[in-house]
Amino acid sequence: MIVAVIGLGTFGAKTAVSLYNKGAEVVAIDLDEVLVEKIKDKVTHAVALNVKDERALRSVNISDVDVAMVAIGDNIEMSIMAVAMLRKLGVGRVIARATSDIHEHILHEIGASEIIKVEEEMGEIMASKIVAPHVLQRYNFAAGYSIVELKMGRRFEGKTLVESKIRQNYNLNIVALQKKIPYITEDGKPAYKTEINDSPMPMDVIEPDDIVVLVGNEKNFNRLFDDLAEA
Predict the structure, then answer these.
(1) Pairing mode, if any, of strands 93-97 and 190-197?
(2) Max Cα-Cα span within the chain
(3) pLDDT, tens only, 101-128
(4) pTM of the predicted model, to two decimals?
């Protein structure tokens, strides 16, 4: 996958590096040569150019990317121009950062495929961490539904999946268990490796260090989180 990230502030730079570390080919773009210099060894290609310049964008084969992320947050005009230019040059999927409702509306109108509002999403993440500190990761995949990775705590320790009654009591489905398996290294030292059981059976036991992956409705997750907090 080839991804262009336009705007190399804190959010854009972090996104570009993370994408590269996950195996994507990343073209990082910013008008600021200092920001481009900082990231050039951490992505596939980094270039300083003005996204208003159609010829400059064509020079980096922007039309060939699979996804373009417009991460510009402090210059709304530049953000809008970047999305408009990307659509003009035939980029199929354009994800854009919005900093206000009006900004979001304009980006939709000019053809952004997806909009992200970093500040709002971070607020939700922080709220979740405060309310449900046992939650390690949470992925929203449809309105009102999530995939959640969490540690179940003492309430479910040592119980089989059947005994936990997660499905019966909360209408949530356990889709995977991540376990720490002890082993001895070649030099005789004890260590642990992670194994993921993506087809857990009813008699599998939930152990203290297990990470349980569940899928279901937000309301049902909230009931589970309330019970875990009381345990």
Answers:
(1) unpaired
(2) 64
(3) 899 999 999 999 999 887 766 666 666 6
(4) 0.62
